[in-house]
Amino acid sequence: MKTGWQKISGVWYYLKPSGVMSIGWEQLGGKWYYLNNSGSMSTGWQQIGNTWYYFEGNGQMATGWKQLSGKWYYLNSGGAMRTGWQQIGSTWYYFYGSGVMATNTTIDGWRIDASGAGRKIENVTSEYKSALAKAKQYSDIMSMSKRAIYDQLVSPYGEKFSKEAAQYAIDNVNANWKENALKKAKMYQESMAMSPSAIYDQLISQYGEKFTPEEAQYAIDNLE
């Protein structure tokens, strides 16, 4: 009678000492595994109940920090993927709903650096407030892209704000960048009779509107 791990047609299964195929959670050698309803060993991301877990290629449940495709995630001691604000050690981090760690942004009044570490902004300076007000004007009145507004805010020929103030403004302006792209696209269509292809190129051009390809495509898809 076969017991333990068995590879059948390229798939791993675990057979209990009784020979019965295991289903669900199984702790072996101090490591946790999850066998789905067919008994096959789980790997990669798996949603079990309402919780996401990550299982290594050998089936072991991951815990702690995990880097995947250049993005960082954090799984607690029970393997659950964390989202929202999390204090890890003495440092606060923010994880989006997808589990990806936030970097280089401002969330809930906290400045998050390239390492993901959050630092509460105790006092929003007048420069930050002015940069935010100016960013809102550029978004609401001129329908500019995120990149274009940032560049205008820090430009020595433009608003001359510090990079920190400009980033704070971009992070807190609450603009709908796709809708801004659509407004720009309609302007090019109505005032210059440009083709959809030419409008798209203008929207994504680094010498033009500087929208992302996704934002530009949304605009093109929604032109009348």
TrEMBL record:
The keyword Acetylation does not apply. Keywords: Repeat. Pfam families: Choline_bind_1, Choline_bind_3, Lipoprotein_Ltp. Residues 127-173, 176-223 form the Putative host cell surface-exposed lipoprotein Ltp-like HTH region domain. PROSITE patterns: CW (PS51170). Signal peptide: none annotated. InterPro entries: Cell_wall/Cho-bd_repeat (IPR018337), Ltp-like_HTH (IPR011434), WH-like_DNA-bd_sf (IPR036388). This is Putative host cell surface-exposed lipoprotein Ltp-like HTH region domain-containing protein. It comes from bioreactor metagenome.
